[in-house]
Amino acid sequence: LIPSADRLTVYDTYLHVRWLADANLAGTPEGKLIASYSGVTNITPGGSMDYNTALNWLTALNRLHLNRAVGYLGHSNWSLPTTPVLPATDTSCTSYNGSGGGSFGYGCTGSDIGSLFNTSLGIPYPNTAVPIPDKPIGPFHNFQPYLYWSKTSNATTNGFHTFSFNTGWSGSNIDNHYMYVLPMIKGQVLTSNGVAVSYWPAGIGTLQVSADGQLVYDPQMDVTWLADADLAKTQTFGAQCPNYEPPGKPTFFPPGIPCIEADGSMTNTTANNWIAGMNSYNGLNGVGWLGQTKWQLPPDQGGCSGFGCVDSYMGELFYSQLGLSQGTPVVPTHNLAVRPFYNVQPYLYWSCSAPYTNPQCQTPPPAAAFEWSFSFGNGFEGTDLQVNNLYVMVYFPQTPAEAFLEAIIKALRTNPELLAFLKQAEEIIMAHGDAARGSAVTAFINHVNAQRVNALGGAQADELIALAQTLFD
Question: pLDDT tens, 413-446?
């Protein structure tokens, strides 16, 4: 990965594409202005969007007229990253292959985002790309802007209901997707001495918080929540293991994948084991965590799917009590640099069906009304309904030679050294044999170093040298 001197783009020497370094441009003030100028609606406050809006957003970037240039940053071929479509399959997915022969699960490198996550960035799945610090949200803390497990199974998809505290989406996922757990108890609770817990107004919605700040009562749903929305980050309750093996699938994960990740995420099977351990815990307050033995995963009793579902416990908490709207993460993601990228969201991103990187997005989709997705929350590759709200990061195809020439012109556009550098670049590109090309690259690097400070800044020189070396490598 070679960042441009201005840090706006990143050249991927493996995929031969140039990524936009801002992994959530649509969620920035600049992105909102572009969307407004181009008439693109339905982008949520956090920057996520449905698939059709993502295609409209691409059109806006490619047709944008700014500073006498056509296309964002002067390029009009921005695209969503691609995922192999049938009959091509991503055989690198060691974790799970869909019944239709598609490419699902972890460790996928045949898709473009999978290649970026697993190979170029080297993020070990199912780790998140962006750890979220412990932030308060009303009486809660440690909330993760990702998917949370429900207790309810989905017979239609052979998965489990889940709720997104990133976008407010109610849906379902397979058991082996790593997600978070927010335990609850139905009704109010008593202390180990049989005394009713005292609560105080929490200052948000009608939520009430216990005097010690560890319990949150929702009178609207008559349910008691744990205030720590990611307790598994610090308490494993005997559910941890060094090598997770899903029931009936002993080769699903390679060795070294823990039952509970360092960020507190886990599979549905582990979540149920964790809850069982929570209820059998023996501590200062007696049996059960905080002296309670009726902890459970939140049921999804309403059966609603999509956005605006307030008939489930987590949906009511998100929309009614916390007052969040569709596409508003429960906590904002801090802008932590992920190598040369920034503004990366630890959530799902849109990908699209195509046999390989270039040509761009094509039909058919992996299934009717679905499109490919990839999670920067844990490295999971799968599919999502096109009406779901996911994030967008973009690139455009670019050969190493094109990247090299563009960087030279951009760095030296008005400098007298431009023609000399372009001539040397041509000698590198047209050289026959390793010896001739190596010699031309060495001469170019010497020229670049000689022009540091005078004609080139340090970041410009570093970019040109790195791109020149890719032509030799």
Answer: 999 999 999 999 999 999 999 999 999 999 999 9
**The residue to which tokens 């296309």 are assigned:** 71
Helix/strand number for the chain, H first, E second = 9, 25
Q: How many CB atoms lie within 10 A of CB 152?
A: 17
C-alpha pair distances (Å), 176 with each of 206, 223, 270, 364, 463: 35, 27, 9, 26, 41
Q: What percent of the chain has pLDDT over 70?
A: 96
DSSP per position, 300-325: --S---BS---SSHHHHIIIIIS---
Given CA atoms 396, 131, 380, 347 in this order, what sign does their dihedral have?
negative
Peptide bond into 397 cis (omega under 30): no
Give the CA dihedral 253, 352, 83, 1, nearest 10 degrees: -100
Residue 334: what pLDDT?
82
385 pLDDT exceeds 60?
A: yes
CA 173 to chain centre: 16
Best CA proximity match to 117, nearest among 224, 41, 42, 14: 14
pLDDT tier for residue 100 given thresholds of 50, 70 and 90: very low
**78, two tokens:** 């921005």
Smallest CA-to-CA distance from 112 within 302, 348, 394 is with: 394
Measured distance CA(427)–CA(439) in Å, rounded: 10
Question: Using CA atoms, how far apart are residues 462 and 11, in angstroms rounded to an integer?
Answer: 13
For residue 383, give Cα distances in angstroms to 153, 197, 297, 407, 470. Answer: 19, 44, 24, 36, 34
